[in-house]
Amino acid sequence: MNFENILVETRGKVGLITLNRPKALNALSDGLFDDVGLALDAFEADEAIGCIVITGSEKAFAAGADISGMKDYGYMDAYKANFITRNWDRVARCRKPLIAAVSGFALGGGCELAMMCDMIFAADSAKFGQPEIKLGILPGGGGTQRLPRAMGKGKAMDMCLTARMIDAVEAERCGLVARIMPTATLLEETIVVAAGIAEFSLPVLMMIKESVNRSYESGLQEGLLFERRSFHAAFGINDRREGMAAFLEKRKPDFTNS
Ligand code: DAK
């Protein structure tokens, strides 16, 4: 797959998307999100792929939406083009596990893109921020909604109202980041984790992802009911039978994603 704004490759059962607009610190354009959407379509359709990683460069995961691309936008341009919603949300709709491997700047839409993934692994160099206020706009790609859910209202307000960047240690401490890794080995370590995930049963991984995400969008009882129904459904999956049989027979399970 050849794209103008991203590099796409597979590493075993892991699909890897690398944002590739180095001159603009991976600023996020509409075209870039079209590319990401097509790559995700292909990885989701590929039965051999069990986990997807999105990464950027060592200096920048992504420095936000492309400011030059939207500087002349009026309300009607943004509204009629369904700006952001049309293609950015594709990332949040991905059904397979998706990890953001973040090195350097993850600002504005870059931070929002990372939050659309299931978890963020950060290099020790990573810097997260929502600096939109400095441009006279507000975070519009989910920042004002996903940040408070990840880190609580106070920290989210601090980031959105002051434009302060937080480093990887603070981001992990407040729950935005799942793991911190050395910058030099971030991608390889992330791929090892992703490869481990991809060894599990894909339908069960998808059920887990759906169920955890449901906790954001429902009350506790609704969420528990959703989890319980999915759990019951898992008894109809061959891989459930295989996983339990393998444990009892003291062997490695052979999952078939069925
Ligand atoms: N857009 C376009 N170009 C960018 C960019 C960006 N976001 N960030 C950096 N660049 C470009 C720079 O212009 C520069 O280009 P040249 O001058 O070399 O041609 C090149 O990348 C290198 O950047 P710097 O020279 O500035 O590099 P430094 O190391 O000095 O600084 C920095 C790095 C990341 C601190 C700095 O570049 C910076 O502050 N960048 C802007 C960060 C930012 O403000 N991000 C938020 C963008 S706004 C919406 C939903 C969501 C959004 C919008 C609308 N709707 C629903 C309508 C999202 C908005 C955003 O993300």
List keywords for this structure.
258 residues; alpha/beta; 44% helix; binds 4-(N,N-dimethylamino)cinnamoyl-COA
Task: Describe the protein's architecture and organization.
There is one protein chain. The chain is an alpha/beta fold. It has eleven helices and ten strands. The chain has helices at residues 30-45, 67-70, 75-80, 109-116, 143-151, 153-162, 168-173, 186-198, 202-217, 220-234, 238-248; strands at 6-11, 14-19, 51-55, 60-62, 98-102, 105-107, 119-123, 127-129, 166-167, 179-181. The strands form two sheets. It has a six-stranded mixed beta sheet with strand order 1-2-3-5-7-10, with helices on both faces. The radius of gyration is 19 Å and the shape is globular. The model has no long low-confidence stretch (mean pLDDT 96). The site of 4-(N,N-dimethylamino)cinnamoyl-COA has 21 residues, from helix 2 and strand 6. Residues 24-25, 27, 63-68, 78, 83-84, 105, 107-109, 131-132, 135, 140-141 line the site of 4-(N,N-dimethylamino)cinnamoyl-COA.
Question: How far is it from the N-terminal to the C-terminal residue, by CA?
Answer: 28 Å
**Beta-strand residue percentage:** 15-25%
Assembly context of the chains: single chain
Figure out the total of helices. Answer: 11
Task: Give the spatial strand order of the biggest sheet.
Answer: 1-2-3-5-7-10
Structural class: alpha/beta
Q: How many β-strands, per DSSP?
A: 10
Shape: globular
The biggest beta sheet, please? 6 strands, mixed
Instruction: Return the string of H and E elements.
Output: EEHEEHHEEHEEHHEHEHHHH
Mean pLDDT: 96
Rg over C-alpha atoms, rounded to the nearest angstrom: 19 Å
